Amino acid sequence: MKTVTALFNGLLTASVCAVASTCANAVPPSPTFKTSFDCAEAKASVEKLICRDPQLAQMDIELTRLYRLALTDEHSVPGPDKVMIDQQFWIDARNQCASEPAPKACTIRSYAERAHQLRQGSAIVRTKDPDRLTEGPLAFRCTGLNPLVAATFFSTQPGVVYLKWANSSIILNQEPSDSGTRYTGKGSQGNYSFWQDGDVVLFQKPGSGPMSCKAEPLG
């Protein structure tokens, strides 16, 4: 009797699946991650991308935290009113990443650049919350490179570092490393790398060998 019942249940399930097309051919919904906005109401393509990507979702939550802190800092540069205006322009620019060949890479860069700006302009933004996902900007003097290199780090999974010197900047992604922390990436001129292990820091850009760098106060 049990065998007949099991067979009947199996045939019934198969029939339901065939009619509703919801079993073997069903595609599970994409997971969504916590963000600063309601993913159920997301309309912009970039917002939908952020909702589906854990790394971008982390960056979004952290960036919103930095922005809200900047609004509380009367000594921020620029001031809170300008920070608020700039944030809206930034959101509009971030959403334009949907039209780029690599939307995620563009969005990562957008978040890293904005985090760099907010942290650079406010002491409160730089120091609040010991569990923050961002650090910097830190300044490094590298042998053979005249301008200081400013570095802002995002401790996401994987991590990201935004490097800026003179009129140049690059976003590098964290890579597995046997020792220290290593970031790599490719710009229009070639490959870049940034490696840090304690006080030992090496920066390499296209056309140069590894340059030894030392931390300096960022003026």
Automatic annotation (TrEMBL):
UniProt keywords, alphabetically: Lipoprotein, Membrane, Palmitate, Signal
Ranges for domain C-type lysozyme inhibitor: 140-210
Gene Ontology annotations for the cellular component aspect, listed alphabetically: extracellular region
One Pfam family here: MliC
Superkingdom classification of source: Bacteria
Annotated TM spans: none
Endpoints of the signal sequence: 1-26
PANTHER family assigned: LIPOPROTEIN LPRI (PTHR37549:SF1)
Protein name: C-type lysozyme inhibitor domain-containing protein
